[in-house]
Amino acid sequence: MTLVALCTLAFFATMVARLVISPVVPEIVETFDSSTGVLGLALTGLWMAYAFAQFPSGVLADRYGERPIILAAIGLTTVASALLALSPSMPVFLVLTLVLGGVAGLHYSVATTLLTRELNNIGTAIGLHNSGAPLAGLLAPIAAAAVSQWVGWRAAIALGAAAALPVFVLFRWKIRPTEPARPDQPMGNRFALKPVLELLSRRKIAFTAMLAFLFEFIWQATASFLPTFLIAYHGYSVTFASTLFSAYFVIQGLTQPGIGSLSDRYGREETAGFCAVLGISGYTLLLVGSRLGVLLVGIVLIGVSMGWGAALLPRFVDNLSSAERGAGFGLVRTTYMMLSATGSVVVGTIADTAGWGIAFGTFVVFLSVICLSLVGNRVLDLGF
User: Distance between CA atoms of 267 and 258, rounded to whole angstroms?
Assistant: First the structure.
């Protein structure tokens, strides 16, 4: 449990460092006499850098072991957050935002691989580990907004360093060194195009990546626009919409371990399909009803649904050999996350041109595709 707890805290810390930026965007824009569009570009770059780092982090872990890579992720997140808080100009801020995304991205795939090597119930372990993100989603924006009002946006961004430093110390103290999976293989060989394409083209890996892309696309867009949707589509206040948004993260964090346990017990596909059905119901309720009770039920359902990672990500691990899990899991994470990072811009554009109802309706369509794909794979025995 110590390993799971500290990996979860490390995920929490790297997520806090990324999430404390959004609440203080207006103050940063004013300080540097910039624009929201430029800050939006910085945040897009942050998440793209985070996604890109998943594959090389796995390669590095295979060569040097998981522990030093996780320590590097937490330690460099501490440094990058501190430097970001001290940025003297917008160009420097943009560069350091990319750096922060990249170093924070070193953690997740490597920690997941470490947990799957050390533990048996990997769905439960991944669910517990994943709960670090929604916990950060609940606490980081609230803390950043409060600290910014008190002492300014630089102190708010420095909360990322404050969260990461003690976790770095604890992880270094409590977690023993790990043996690398491929200490002698040149890292350049791992980036060769042919083996990369071979892994991604495997039927079970490609099918799981497609499902993960659809789920992650929805997660990204929901995280970006749920409060705006509640305000623009239903007419709720900013404060109330933010409260429901926090509730969404809380539900997601509390239920992910249970989703992982269900996937261990009843199967990855069955549990992922269950998440998709809950999501269809939840988003439909958000679209058809404005009454508080209806919205609350919808928030609960989509909160549980967006815990899909605890069910689906172990399916990648199940279909990778122990020697492939480090770089292989990182590769598939980079692939589907880079594609799904378009969720915010695509859904935002649909909302601008066709309205929020159509924009959030796309989530129901995507979740229906997931359900049909899972049912088709099982009923027709397609072997995906």
Answer: 13
| pLDDT tens figures, 89-104 | 999 999 999 999 999 9
Q: In this structure, are residues 278 and 262 in contact, taking their beta carbons and an 8 Å threshold?
A: no
Q: What is the DSSP letter of 33?
A: T
Task: Measure CA 374 to chain center.
Answer: 23
Query: What are 129-179's pLDDT values in tens digits?
Result: 988 888 888 888 788 888 988 999 999 999 999 999 999 999 999 998 887
65 in Cβ contact with 330 (< 8 Å): no
**What is the number of residues in the chain?**
384
Cβ(104)–Cβ(73) below 8 Å: yes
Q: What is the pTM of this model?
A: 0.79
How far apart, in Å, are the Cα atoms of 298 and each of 221, 229, 252, 276? 16, 13, 13, 13
Q: How far apart (Å, rounded) are the C-alpha atoms in residues 300 and 285?
A: 11
DSSP 34: -
Q: What is the C-alpha separation between 106 and 66, in angstroms, rounded?
A: 10
The maximal CA–CA distance of the chain, rounded, in angstroms, is 61
Q: How many whole angstroms separate alpha carbon 166 and alpha carbon 10?
A: 10
